[in-house]
Specification:
Shape: globular
Helix content: 25-40%
Number of strands: 12
Largest sheet: 7 strands, parallel
Length: 316
């Protein structure tokens, strides 16, 4: 007997517009798959490819989802659905896993935020360097010693920009890393530069541009790897990276639906580094789970039964 398959589109507004170097978001759209096994098990998969002004990707994702629901299983035909299909095959949906508590998650910096310890992620590259760099340096000097900082320019820097920033930041032990500072054309250069950089470097978007698993396996271990599973096409490769104890892997949100966020929470229990699981941007929205908004997240945070109940509400 074939497993039952279905899909839905999930839209969730941000509490307030979200600003990054790539633009402003007001709403996040995801496509979610569900598969019910004959043994009663339920599995979810999500792909959230929809960056600003990319509606054509949604149309393509829906076409692929309809084919999948019709049991057309030629994996090579599915380009956009691959992260969701990888999630469906994952062991994270097995109910009998041991419950655990995640490391404290990194928080996205906000003006009114006051922390005495933990990890903060701050978006940079939002205005001119002459304005922003002195402001960030003063902010760093004001932080308690126990705070660690991740800076994320979202590929907005040139090589020279990065060199100026890292020179200015050098010697500040509070900086855990600077994340994907430069763009596509500089991927190889950035990896080479990481060996001499006074500030540790993390790769994010560059991971998605690598053409083969071998390219990913050959990434030097001095680099942090920031992985957004809903964008990562092959979770078998992800698990192989996790099996390497020398890898510095951080799981991070791409503003998933509650289904994809639960997958992210469960995956995050497999690495010791603080994940980037901030979800306050959706706090108060309809269909949010309170378990996803507590200071200390558990894994699993939300049961498969509760996820199934939410799905059934959405498809009525």
């Amino acid at each position: 007997m074939k497993a039952k398959r279905s899909h839905l589109i999930f839209r969730q507004p941000f509490r307030k517009p979200f600003h990054s170097a790539k633009g402003v978001w007001e709403e996040r759209t995801s496509l979610v798959l569900r598969q019910d096994g004959s043994d009663g098990c339920v599995f979810f998969g999500e792909v959230a490819p929809l960056q600003i002004r990319s509606d054509w990707i949604l149309k393509r994702a829906i076409q692929e989802a309809k084919q999948w629901c019709e049991y057309k299983d030629d994996f090579d035909e599915f380009e956009i659905l691959r992260p969701a299909l990888s999630s469906l095959k994952s062991s994270i949906w097995k109910e009998k896993q041991v419950c655990s508590t995640l490391p404290e998650t990194a928080r996205i910096w906000a003006m009114n935020q006051s922390l005495s310890h933990g990890v903060i992620k701050r978006k940079i590259g939002l205005c001119s360097m002459n304005e922003e760099l002195p402001e960030v340096l003063a902010w760093l000097d004001s932080l308690p010693e126990e705070i660690k900082v991740r800076l994320d320019p979202n590929e907005s820097f040139s090589r020279n920009d990065l060199l100026k920033w890292t020179d200015a930041l050098g010697g500040r032990s509070c900086i855990q890393f600077i994340e994907q500072p430069t763009g596509m054309k500089d991927d190889d250069w950035l990896i080479e530069h990481s060996f001499d950089s006074p500030i540790p470097i993390a790769l994010d978007e560059a991971l998605l541009r690598m053409e083969s698993p071998e390219d990913l396996y050959q990434i030097p271990r001095n680099l942090f790897l920031v992985i957004k599973p809903v964008l990562f096409k092959d979770w078998d490769v992800l698990y192989a990276l996790l099996a390497d104890s020398e890898r510095k892997i951080i799981f991070s949100t791409a503003f998933e639906s509650p289904f994809g966020y639960e997958a992210l929470v469960r995956l995050s229990s497999r690495t010791h580094l603080a994940p980037g699981l901030e979800r306050s941007c959706f706090d108060g929205n309809t269909h949010e789970f309170a378990e996803h908004h507590v200071p200390s997240l558990s894994c699993p945070a939300v049961s498969n039964r509760k996820l199934s109940h939410l799905w059934n509400l959405l498809v009525k």
